[in-house]
User: Fold these one by one.
Assistant:
Number 1:
Amino acid sequence: MAPIYKVAVIQLHPKVPLQLEANYLKAAQFVQRAASLGAQLAVLPEYHLTNWVPEDPKFASLCDQWKVYLGKYRALAKECNICIVPGTIVERHQDAEKDEDKLINVAYFIDNKGEVLGSYQKKNLWHPERPHLTSSTHDPHTVIQTPLGPIGLLICWDLAFPEAFRELIAGGAKIIIIPTFWTLSDCSPYGLRLNPRAEALFLTSTLTSRTFENTCAVIFANAGGPKGKGQENSYAGLSRVTLPFVEPLGEETKDSNEEGMSVVDIDMEILEEAERNYKVREDMGREGWHYSYRHDGVLVREREKL
């Protein structure tokens, strides 16, 4: 019988930009509550510790503390007996090639024993990020073996690229986790004149498409705004879990842009039945599959294991 996993999607509001400890403590309270409700995994948004203020002179130096907060989340996961994807943590490293500092945006999967099982550096940078962050460029997307089965990590704007999903699906991922910092104001003035909620339309339609076209579950954790001020902030929110066949899951957050948390069940039988129906993975695994993507080598390696 296929397992059912209970996951918490935390739509955190990074209330105080650059106040890492204050934002961590609030995030930890959500994780502890998720664990008390029986969740096996808690997922936080992108930039939840710092908010996105790269022009601030303190931003880069605070990113030196990434090991401190990764350690805090590892300890929290062990203490609460819960797996955690702590959104993303921006890290400052020395760039050996350019002899200068570089910032990278990283998502980690931490298991319930506090061990880091894998990580992913954001590849597809949103336009305003490109002057500040370094992409993982041609590094392959890799699948992580976890207590919830094989998962893939993506970050925010990666959602716009079906190729990222296909590479992870080719490697066997069943659940794709996407920490995000996506706002309604990311749309151009032209698009906003046509539809003030154009970005919400982008998110809801694309998340549904990705789950059907890849017979996978998608866990989408976006930043939210302050409680009680949904109409006054530009945070998109809409944090949810999408599965084939069914409406999006996440009653507290899926239709909201305010801070909150949804705890939902992911029934893996739905994914198995979706694959039996649509045969996406079966087609991708066939000899002579007619699309030549960068993950062809992954498919060859997977066939060699059989």
Note: Residues 94 and 100 are 6 Å apart (CA to CA).
Number 2:
Amino acid sequence: MSPAGGAIISTSSVVPSSDESNNTQATPSPIPVPSSPSGSNTNTQRPHPKPDYPIPKLRIECHDLNHKGAQIFFTNSVVTHDLSAAVSTVLSTLYNASKSNSHIPPTRSVTLILQSFDGVAYTTGNDLDNDHKEIHFSLDYIAEISETRQHDEIQGVLVHEMVHCWQWNALGTCPSGLIEGVADFVRLKAGLNPPHWVKERSSNWDEGYQHTAYFLDWIEDKWGKGSVQKINETMMSKRYVEDEFWKGLFGKEVEQLWTEYTDTLPESEESHPEEDLGKPDEGEAKDSVQHDKLEKIMNRE
């Protein structure tokens, strides 16, 4: 191997003088290198490495380690793993990695902030640089999660909020219901949907959260894997105009798609299961209070 690490081998021969050729035995010819099979490439090339997703810097702040919610969080979450897993889940669901990853929002860091406030969680950009995101997670909400749901609910909320760090929003014109529906769609595909989620015929398509998430999941099944990726990436550089948006993607108005979806729902799925939910309905209601904050931040992107 050459000093530079290459694999090229160089050979040279010395032609003997006439006297030397009379007094020495003939040197056997070198064994020829076997020829490559017909049609094969004589230059062996290593396969190109598979593109990777961007890796943001991850941080965490806790405003009160003595809070019951903080104790529950750190008991149920291995932060170094769970935050990275949330990023991986979001990116692998919404995007295919490429060499440049220019189709993925340029989020450079995500800071998880655990603090006391009404609601569940919300995501904002940093005041100075919107490429740095902050996920605010309520310690008061965490403190009220039922014991059997603590780990999955915490991770589910982290995945939902992490979507807001990476999704496109049609230059700030995307309906908030679709924004939240995409976030819960990713949570649904990750298997982190809580037991109170149900498919409902009476809801509107853009009601958001699990209502829109199940609608998007139906689209994914009907039009093929990657359909929600197309929905998200279409909002990368175009403003949202409802009829043009859905017809351009699926050839139908969104209300027609919604009708087709709800027609597939059996009546039995409209009833809510009776089980210990750990206040998820209350949490969803509280989370809706954060819509205005989220929309303001998304409109700055």
Note: The chain has a mean pLDDT of 82.
Number 3:
Amino acid sequence: MAAADTQSMPAEPAPAVPDYLASPNAVLGDQIGSWRYGRAPDYTNTRKVWEETKQMSHTAGSLPQLVENLVKNWEVEASFKKDLNDWRTIDHSNYSFAINGGPPQSAEHMLQVGTYNAIIAPNEYYSPESSDFASSHKTFKRMMPTFAWEVLEVYSGPPQVAFRWRHWGTMKNDYVGFNDKGEKVTAKAHGGNIDIQGVTVATVDDKVRLQNVQTWFDPMEMFRQIAPNGIVNKQIVTPEDKKEVSEEEHESSTAASTAASTVTAAPSATSITRTEVPQNLNIRAEDQVDTVTASGNSLDDKVEATQRPTSAPGNGIVDPAQGSETAAAHEEMSKITPAQCPFMNKE
């Protein structure tokens, strides 16, 4: 008996990879109410610096490109989304973050203290104990308006992804912070590059969301580059002085767009004086860039934001400041299926 002819059903197209792998700007299009400053941040300048000064140009859809996009979207969420429920780049029930073999930190902890305070231990230049979330970002943003980030190489694929990265920017204004002794530390701006590198090993789930993240780097390398000759000014201040400065910085960071006087630097090196009135640390209006800033950059682009084009989750957006080659790569990556994705094709 001849077998009956059968007509195979057309296969449904495979879904695209998550948008936070396809574009570094995916979560910037999330229409949510938990943005730290009322709206999505503007990463235009940081992405432009990345485009112009990056060391690597990864192939669209390659493992290094996907890892880079994942981490960039995670940094945006860690820095600017106040509600953990809106973080799309982590596996909420299994997420932890650790620095240099230290104890694991929860997402709640990073959300409370800020990304800088979560990764920098107290030292002679800076102490997380003397800065809250807003003031810590303001400290580094003033000094270095853009802090670009890239993946240099990836050593292993999922579910445990090991990679080396680079974080860099230019010291355009003086560094002003509080150290582990409670002293106010000022390092004169030198206009040179600050370039640090590190290694991260991250476990991801089947949706390529971060779970166990462990990072190794030398946080003092940044401060050695901030003050390459070890020349800084230190001022003894009272707790009341520090509180007043912190409050002033917090008010400045949440303002819509104001910038008044110049960052001031103390005249002599390693001198110790007593100050009763904290200096105004606002940067000049003409020095402001990236109205919302990282690393950060975050880790990048912190404080006051301008409205960005938005898109629904699943549709990554491409920054208009990026080159046509990068935009084309992002568009191509958005069409990659799980079978083609290095993260998801484990065979």
Note: DSSP finds nine helices and ten strands in the chain.
